[in-house]
Specification:
With 289 residues, the chain is of the alpha+beta class. It is 16% helix and 24% strand.
């Protein structure tokens, strides 16, 4: 049985041991964090790499959307794109999900059209998107591809960090993403990915050597709607404010488009449902008096 002095010595030794372990763990964590590039902050996509390009963001930031992307489409999917453009010229929206405030999936969520945040841990890099999908997870824990992948718009991403210049710090995050459902498009002009949803995206994330507030995302798409792999480099710019504002964004709030079944209608300022296309049939109201 310990006396008072022995008990005090025991408690002191235990406290010192715990403090040493906590300090060691803290140093190990700091050393581990120091191996990764500093990706903290708010990132927004540079949606057009040159001025004078009209339209919404598309895959190649140096070219206009839709047909102007000059995507290496197969003849079948070139015809699908042209049919979609004709429908849009008449007022239609095809089945592009953005009009109904539904998720875009890859590759559109990689464009940075809304502010995003990257949180790096040894096991997972989280890409927080201020949009419907919210979170993209890139697993960097050395796992293999699962035998079965539940298809999603965002897909399943496995990555690995690389120290290219052998300085003890990681420079590049290589990522492969697969396991999709659709429909998915490159842009609002309905530039299509293949309907089989067998797309594979390969990415390389790395900070600009001259400006650490620029993050490059080199994306290669391998898709059966393409005659060859299609590669572009997209850029994200970091907000210099260390305490940026994260605004609330709710796509459905104030959205005038209404998706009913396979048809898209427009809600007028008076709150009345209106057709998008000439001769468009009204929705089926058989269960309404």
């Amino acid at each position: 049985m310990l006396n008072g002095r022995s008990m005090g010595t025991f408690v002191l030794k235990a406290a010192l041991l715990i403090a040493t372990q906590v300090m060691t763990m803290g140093l190990a964590t700091a050393a581990e964090e120091g191996k990764y590039p500093d990706l903290r902050g708010q990132w927004t996509g540079i949606l057009r790499s040159r001025p004078g390009i009209a339209g919404q963001a598309s895959f190649d930031p140096g070219k206009p959307g839709g047909k102007g992307q000059e995507a290496p489409l197969t003849p079948e999917y070139q015809a699908i794109l042209e049919a979609a453009l004709r429908s849009q010229a008449e007022g239609g929206l095809t089945d592009w999900r953005g009009a109904a405030c539904l998720g875009f999936g890859m590759p559109q969520i990689a464009y940075g059209f809304q502010p995003m945040e990257l949180i790096v841990t040894p096991e997972t890099t989280y890409v927080l998107v201020n949009w419907v999908e919210h979170t993209r997870r890139i697993y960097t824990d050395g796992r293999d591809w699962p035998a079965e992948i539940e298809p999603t718009l965002t897909g399943y991403s496995i990555g690995r960090w690389i120290d290219e210049d052998n300085d003890g710090r990681y420079d590049v995050l290589e990522v492969e993403t697969r396991g999709f459902k659709g429909p998915r498009y490159y842009d609002a002009a309905a530039l299509p990915l293949h309907h089989d949803n067998q797309s594979v995206f390969k990415e390389r994330f790395y900070l600009d050597k001259a400006d650490k507030n620029i993050l490059h995302d080199e994306i290669t798409v391998i898709d059966h709607a393409l005659t060859r792999p299609w590669t572009v480099v997209r850029d994200l710019r970091r907000n210099p404010n260390p305490r940026p504002t994260w605004g609330e964004f709710i796509c459905a709030e104030g959205n005038g488009y209404v998706r009913i079944g396979k048809e898209t209608y427009f809600l007028s300022a008076a709150g009345l449902l209106m057709p998008m296309l000439k001769g468009q049939e009204p929705p089926d109201l058989r269960h309404f008096k």
